[in-house]
Amino acid sequence: MPVDANPANPADPARPADPVARPGAPRPPVEIQAEQVAKSFGPKSVLADINITVRSGEIVAIVGGSGSGKTVLLDTLIGLHMPTSGRVLVADHDSPPDAQTGAPRLVDLAGLGSDALDLLRLHWAVVFQRNALFSGSVRSNIALWLREHTSLGEHEIDQRVRDCLQAVSLDVHDVIDKDRDALSGGMAKRVAIARAIACDPLVIFYDEPTTGLDPVISATIHELIWNLHHRPLENLPLRELPGGTRRQLNRAALTRTSIIVTHDKELLRRLAPRVVMLDRGRICYDGPYERFGTPGPDGGGEPARQYLASMPVLHQRFGPPQSGE
C-alpha cells in the first residue's frame, strides 16, 4: 500500500467519484441532520446553533481547536449526548422508506427509546480515539458483534475475522490471537478499523483516528479510511427482531458515509473531504477542503487560517481530550 499517494486525487481515474459532488446527479438521501443544536453542561455552553446535513456517501471531517466542541458534537450526533436544544435527525433504515422519494425516513434521536436506539446503531460503527478494544484477544474483539447480531456460524465468523484483519494489512497469523495489551498503537488502531469492517456499517464515525501516530502509520490509516468508505456494502444475515421481521435492505445499492473528527492536516489533504470547522462551539466553515483556509470569508476567515497553522502541533498531542473538546 503506497503511503505517499494521494488517495483522493480527483484527477486519478482509478478513484471512485464522490456521489455527493457528481454534477447532474440526484442528491443522495440524508443520513444525519442537526438542526439548531445547542449543548451545555451546567452553565458552560459547548455547542450553539449547529446546523449540519450529512448525505449518504459523504466523507465529512469535523475540525477545530481544542475545546471547540468537536467531540461533543460527534457524541451528540451518535446519541451519547442529547442536545440541550435543537434536534438530531437520523435515517431509519429498518422502517419502510418514504413512499414518494424512496429515501429513508428521518427520526429524532431524542424521541427513541434505548431499544430503538440500539437497533439504529446496528447500522453504525465508531472508531474511538483510544480504540475501545475490550480485554481479550483480537479474535474475540472482532467476533463479538458478529456473534451477537448475525446468524453466521462460528466457521463463517472466524473467516470474516481473518478477512477483516487482512483488509487492514495485518499479518493474520501473527495478530489474531494476540491480547489487546500486546498491540502497538498502530496495530490497535487497525484492529479497531477491522472491527468496524466486520459489522459493515452504513455510517462510520472516527474520533481522531491518527492522533499521536507516526507519519507512516498515519498514512496507512488514511488509506484504510478511504478504502473502507468505498468498500461495497454487503448483505450480512442480521438476526430477526423480537416480535417481528427485520426489513431486508438491499445494502449493495447503498453507499457508506464517513464522519471524521481530526486534527490531521495530511488526512485532509489526502482524502479531500467536506470540512466542517467549529470555532468556540459554532460552525465557522462548512465546505470543500479545496476552499478551506483560503483568503476571504468563504474560506473560513481568520479562525480557519490560524487553525490550519496549528494543526501539526495539535495532531501530535498525547493524552485525553480536554473538557468540551
Tertiary shape: globular
Number of strands: 10
How far apart are the termini?
A: 33 Å
Largest sheet: 6 strands, mixed
Order of helices and strands: EEEHEEHEHHHHEHEHEEH
Helix/strand/pairing class, anyone? alpha/beta
Protein model, in words:
With 325 residues, the chain is of the alpha/beta class. Helix content is 30%, strand content 21%. It contains nine helices and ten strands. The chain has helices spanning 70-77, 114-121, 138-149, 154-167, 172-175, 185-199, 215-230, 265-271, 301-315; strands spanning 30-41, 44-55, 59-63, 85-92, 105-108, 124-127, 203-207, 257-261, 274-279, 282-288. Strands 6-7-8-3-9-10 form a six-stranded mixed β-sheet, sandwiched between helices. A four-stranded antiparallel β-sheet has the order 2-1-4-5, with helices on one face. α7 packs parallel to α8. It is globular. Residues 1-17 and 318-325 have low confidence and may be disordered.
